Amino acid sequence: MRTHEKKAGKKGFSRIAGVDEAGRGPLAGPVVSAAVILPFRFPVSGVTDSKRLSRKKREDLYEAIYEHALTIGIGIVDPAEIDRINILRASLLSMSMSVDNLDPQPDYLLVDGPFRISSALTQEPVIHGDARSISIAAASIIAKVTRDRLMERYHQDYPEFGFAGHKGYPTRAHKEAIRKFGCCPIHRKSFRGVKEHFNVKREE
């Protein structure tokens, strides 16, 4: 999990940030990215792809990463912007935003996936990076927990959709709620499963 960081270190880079996003697949809510610079001697074990972790383990690691990371940046792109520019561009934009929010700034980026982000910094796309780089894995945990907490907050505004449970993903319960109530302001109008129901009047 530290191979990519070690290789970058041997090239002379010292502030290596892992970058990842959460929320490309949901029908509702923002896409959230995180960028994380870990210290060379990061004392926390068990950091891996957030999707492989239980909720409790993610929450525990989230707190530990915040305690020990040199810096963490968050980038959030809302549903309206997702609809305007498409989800891939929105994901890459949120990644760029998360890097911009790092202080101090990194000198090298490890970016999850096959695409480069908009940044003048030296960067390396890493396919399946959340399972191959501890920095990207840390970013995946921060992004996932941050987005989950946002969706739990949205649940308070739109409880009929059950966002606290499915976090906006296209579960059977979520799709049934859309059919019953129409759509709310945080639904992604351009997504299949939403656009067909967008003008349906919600039940009172």
What is the number of independent domains?
A: 1
Which CATH architecture would you pick? 2-Layer Sandwich
Number of strands: 5
Query: What general form does the structure show?
Result: elongated
User: How large a portion of the residues is in β-strands, by DSSP E?
Assistant: 15-25%
Instruction: Give the C-alpha Rg.
Output: 18 Å
Corresponding CATH superfamily: Ribonuclease H-like superfamily/Ribonuclease H
List SSEs in N-to-C order: HEEHEHHEEHHH
The CATH class is: Alpha Beta
Structural class: alpha/beta
Q: What gap, in angstroms, lies between the N and C termini?
A: 51 Å
Average of the residue pLDDT scores: 95
Strands of the widest sheet, in order across it, are: 3-2-1-4-5
Largest sheet: 5 strands, mixed
Number of helices: 7
Approximate helicity band: 25-40%
CATH topology: Nucleotidyltransferase, domain 5
Low-confidence stretches: none
Name a few traits of the molecule:
204 residues, alpha/beta, Nucleotidyltransferase, domain 5, 5-stranded mixed beta sheet, 40% helix, elongated
Describe this structure as you would to a colleague.
The chain is α/β, with parallel strands linked by helices. The protein has one domain: 2-Layer Sandwich (Nucleotidyltransferase, domain 5), CATH 3.30.420. Helices cover 40% and strands 15% of the residues. The chain is built from seven helices and five strands. It has helices spanning 3-10, 55-68, 79-85, 87-100, 134-157, 163-166, 172-181, and strands spanning 16-22, 31-37, 71-77, 108-112, 122-126. A five-stranded mixed sheet has the order 3-2-1-4-5. A hairpin with an 8-residue loop joins strand 1 and strand 2. Helix 2 (55-68) packs across helix 5 and helix 3 crosses helix 4 (87-100). The longest helix is centred in the C-terminal third of the chain and has 24 residues, at 134-157. The chain is elongated. It starts with a helix and ends in a 23-residue tail after the last helix.
